[in-house]
C-alpha cells in the first residue's frame, strides 16, 4: 500500500489528523496495523468529566459523566442520576471514568433515585451541553461547570468537577471490574461475569441454527431491559441515542434441549449474551469460525 493511501486509511480508521498519522507510521516502520495500535496508545484526545452536583435548597444530589472528543467537540458518553439520597455524593470524582459511570447506573437503582426527573432532563441537558461545547475553543472543567450552572438557572447548584484525559486504547478498553458471577443456565454452563439477554437476528438466507459453530460471528441485539444492560450495551457499541442497535458477537457456546437452542455470545471477557433460538431458525452470520471479522479491522 502506498504511503499516501496508508495515511488516509489511518486517518479514517482512528480519527487522527494527517500529522498524527504520519508520526504513527514513522514510529511503526510504515506498518499500518502497528500504526493503528500506536495511535491508540499515543493520542490523548478524549476527556472524561466526572461531575458531582448539589442543589442546596432542594436537597437534591447528582452525578454526571460526560466524555468528550476534544478534537471534534463530540460527546461520546453522557450519563447522569439525580437523587434525594446524599450517599451518592460520597462517590469520589477521583475514581476512574469507568468506575464513576458504573456508580451512576448503580445509583439509578437505589432508593431515593429520582427516576422521572433524571429521565426528563437527561436528553435536554445532553443536547444543551453538546451545543455549548461546540462554541468553546478549549473544553475545561471550569467551562463544563459554567454550562451546568447556566442550564439549571435559576436554581443554584454547587459543582465539583474532575477531568480525566484518556487515549483511544484506554477509552475503548472495558475494565475487568465486573466480578459478580451470574446464575447458571439450564445446561449447567457457566455464563461468565455478567449475562445479558440477547437475540440473534434471523435471515431466511442465513445459516441454520443447527449448523452454527463456536467461533462463528453473528449479528445480535441486546434485549435485556435492566439499567446495567443499557449501560453495558452503551459501552460495547450496542446502544446509540438511547436505542439498542445490532452488533456483532462471537458464538462462545451452543447447547440444545429438545428443539430449543441456547447460544452464548461473547461481547467482552466479562460480558456474555444468551439467546434462546428455535431449532428451525436461520440466523444472520457475518463470519464463520475460520475467518474472524474483527481481526481484519481491529488488529489490536
| Number of DSSP strand runs | 14
Strand order of the largest sheet: 5-7-10-11-12
Specify the structural class: alpha+beta
Oligomer: single chain
Q: What is the mean predicted local confidence, pLDDT?
A: 82
Strand content: 25-35%
Largest sheet: 5 strands, mixed, barrel
Q: Rounded to an integer, what's the Rg over CA atoms?
A: 22 Å
Principal-axis shape: flat
Provide an overview of this structure.
This protein is an alpha+beta fold and 300 residues long. Helices cover 31% and strands 32% of the residues. It has a five-stranded mixed beta barrel. A four-stranded antiparallel sheet has the order 3-2-1-4, with helices on both faces. Strands 6-13 form a two-stranded antiparallel sheet. Helix 1 (3-14) packs across helix 2. The radius of gyration is 22 Å and the shape is flat. The two termini are 20 Å apart. Residues 175-192 and 291-300 have low confidence and may be disordered.
Kindly summarize this structure in a few lines.
With 300 residues, this protein is of the alpha+beta class. The protein has helices at 3-14, 18-26, 32-42, 97-107, 115-134, 141-152, 168-172, 227-236, 294-297; strands at residues 46-55, 60-69, 74-83, 158-166, 194-200, 202-208, 217-222, 239-240, 243-244, 247-257, 260-268, 271-278, 282-283, 285-287. Helix 1 (3-14) packs across helix 2 (18-26), helix 1 crosses helix 3 and helix 5 packs across helix 6.
